[in-house]
Predict the 3D structure of the following.
Amino acid sequence: MSEFRITGKAKLAGVIGYPVTHSLSPVLHNYWLARHGIDGAYVPLSVAPDAFVIAVKGLQAAGFRGANVTIPHKEAAFAIADEVDPMARIAGSVNTLVFREDGSIHGSSTDGFGYVANLEADGIDVSALASRGPALLLGAGGAARSIATSLLEKGFQVIFSNRTAERADGLAKELDAAWRRNFPEGDAPWLSTIAWDEWEEQLGDMALLVNTTSLGMQGGPAPDWAPNLSKASRHLVASDIVYVPQETPFLKAARELGLTTSGGLGMLLHQARPGFKAWFGADTEVDEATVAYIRAALSRR
Ligand code: ATR
């Protein structure tokens, strides 16, 4: 790996969050910058909600090439962008801002892309999976929304199940309306919901199961959470967006049943690739060395 070098011409980007201390993005981007020998830097930017707009304008004025945006700013980032890609428009949130030379701001949502890219990197044929059955998403927050948008794009039927049923119903309705607005000529999306206490019984019909909640997260509300997967078809792909621990109790249970599994760390790494390319001009790979480097960084926390 090249040594870290930075000059007066360095390309600059960062991650805007509040708090931002938990973000792994600075570790990841600076690792890739060093590996590619790029004159650049990526910094954490702690910005309170009422300072978001002024911070973005300031970064633009200071010559930054753009920024990632994390909680609680993803909707504000959507609002500040002059142009957003279709998936971000449907998801209603933006996590990657690119400052263009003409002063305009481009916004995209790369979380869903990262999720799907990680499945593919794990050797899963996503298009084939979509023809095998629906995707069942547990949760109805921002992560569910981004992932559902990308799964719809890949041709999946999407079913939400959430502890608070109204949120799942609301999300399905909103996504349906947003999809039809953005693709008036195309096929209508297939979206529905299942009650939280019924999804385990319905697993036999599903091709893909995604935990988008914080259940199973170390230090979270239910770190030991492991659902009953006994009704799953043997072709079910079980995936989790939680990445601490790297194998959650849910994924362990799925693996022990012989199901194909996909963990959450890869989504985080893959969602970073489009921003890195836009700001620093290089294609990156989420290879074993990258995963090992980030795992080591996580274990030091
Ligand atoms: P994000 O935007 O990151 O997805 P969020 O909006 O806080 O985060 O959503 C968290 C999800 O985890 C929600 O779907 C939440 O369910 P509710 O809508 O019922 O709150 C789900 N969740 C969190 N703790 C849970 C628990 N103990 N049992 C079941 N679901 C839980």
The longest helix spans residues 165-182. The longest strand covers residues 11-17.
